[in-house]
Design brief:
Blueprint (H helix, E strand, L loop, with lengths): L4 E3 L23 E12 L7 E7 L2 E7 L6 E2 L2 H6 L2 H28 L7 E12 L5 E9 L2 E7 L4 E3 L6 H9 L1 H30 L6 E8 L3 E11 L4 E7 L2 E3 L3 E3 L3 E2 L5 E10 L8 E7 L6 E4 L5 E4 L8 H16 L4 E4 L24
Antiparallel strand pairs: 1-20, 2-3, 2-6, 3-4, 4-5, 6-7, 7-8, 8-9, 10-11, 10-19, 11-16, 12-13, 12-17, 14-16, 15-16, 17-18
Length: about 375
Amino acid sequence: MNISYRYFAPADMLPLLLLALCCAHSSWAVTHSLRYFYTGVTGASGFPEYTAVGLVDGQEFVHYDSDIKRAEPKTEWIERNVGKDYWDTVTQINTGTSQVFKADLQIAMQRFNQTGGVHTFQKMYGCEWDEETGATGGFQQYGYDGRDWLVFDLKTLSWTAPVPQAFQSKLKWDANRAFNEGSKTYLTQECIEWLKKYVDYGRETLERGVQPDVSVFQRPSSFRTELTCLATGFFPRDIVVSWWRDRQELHEDVESGEVVPNMDGTFQIRKSLTVKREELDKHQYSCRVDHKSLDRPISVSYDKTGRHREGEPKGGFPVGIIVVVGVLVLIAVVGIVIWRKRQTGYGKASTSDSDSNSSNNPPAKA
């Protein structure tokens, strides 16, 4: 399973807050995922210094940050199925990890000869499980200030350091064979066990189907026109959006956005097509959307009036407002920093405590 994640440097955060948690499957395979995101921040006023979130199939179910100083449920199904010991354990792990992230940020700043400014340190880890085939996969990555840092290779039990500043951590982590073997055990066994448990807890919610609303918009320019297709209000997040000219699917001059969350727990995505203005009168352009909730794909055509809509977006929000709403939810979910389409990593982790009562995997020590 190839998984890509996005990291943005602090300077990119406000204009480019887009979540990349999309893994589309045209066959709508029953693939479930469990992902945790830890984000440490320094030099940014008004934001928690540390945020941790857990997501099952893209839905946030647990949240912790250094302002509230406790783990909180974000879905009814997790709140109903676990007790106080679970939340105490998650809180304890993240309280310790938040302190380590402070040290991580200082170490990374020193390696880049930085003495101030806004900086971020991130960890992403988790697993996937195909309920139909039984196939599984695990991943663990670190990032600093939007730059690739360290990525764990489950096959070789070694770390990749894309930047010279991370090489010292790579050597230290590669030498810690016991820790790397423990990480593999967690990612390939314990994480899968927790994922299956969570899916059982929330199956009714996680496997529901909500149909997308689809709209096509035009943004003209002097010589070329951008047609934008917006699909919003759908669940689950896996979706296929394509542009067609007459009866031919288009791949050139097509730009796809990322799947991002709406406030109600559904998702949205944009896909744009750039065409020459004279071509609009010669051909029919349409956006085709396929989703698990649909009996057949939705097709919405550009009608040369500049705007054609298949129903209103959920709640009747204009497109710009929908995107802003997605961004606001994203800030709450991920805690400031988003990831760009690069593989990621970083050079220090946290506590060596083990956790037998929670699905959180404590990081390493650099």
